[in-house]
Amino acid sequence: MTDGVTISQAAAFASVTVKTIRHYHQNGLIDEPRRDSSGYRRYGTAELLRLVQVRTLAGAGVPLAEIGTILDADPDQFAAALLDVEESLTSRIDELIARRETLRQLTHGDRVLLPDRALALLDRMPGLGFTADDVTTAQQGLILVRTLIPEGFDDYLSQIEHGLDDSRHVAMIKLTWSAGNWDPDDPRIEELAEEVAAHFLADLSLLPTLTGLENRDDGKSRYELLTHHAEDERPGWTRLTALIEEKMRSASIDSP
User: Fold this and answer.
1) What three-state secondary structure class fits 107?
2) Least C-beta-crowded within 10 Å: which of 4, 83, 91, 128?
3) Using 50, 70 and 90 to split pLDDT, how confident is the model at 60?
4) How many CA atoms lie within 13 A of 56 on its CB side?
């Protein structure tokens, strides 16, 4: 299966033009992704997330020359840089007032890309024992789900809310996330996949599903982007996810 999507698909997913993406490449805001065996560049979740971040800042009126520095800054520098941009905008004409408000929201980073309901879920996670890295990964994942499957996003949030109310499910998810740091050949991954599949088969209401994919011609590409998100940082996930899907399919459950 081809990994990643073409520049045209990436542009459609992020609601920009191909020309805009190439302009971002030329300005060094997004690294040009690798080429596949046919010579086409393929955009993965990292490039798509960066594209959404750049598009949001550019839409808020941040000059392209400043976006790269802002995105690569630490949280304090990020907030300070945005404050400088805000002060510049307030000296301009009234039509920039709406953009200035967006910049104020952007001092909270990518949180501006999510609705309050999703932010409430992220805020619950530390109290349930999830790490800061877990929360960051979840936040990025929610941004991608909202971008790739907007029509199913509210249903997806409902499923997560339901799962977080189940203490046994929360414990299972935390174990699954920690397994992402295991070596892909770790024998525990096979055992965990069996346990996770049994957990979901015992209560399918806890299985988050991505509604809306089945109605899209490019549903498989969107699903692959979501499935492979953060695998570079959590190498154990690739094998674990494949084993879980295999065991669910063997039980006649084939819903993403």
Assistant:
1) helix
2) 91
3) confident
4) 24
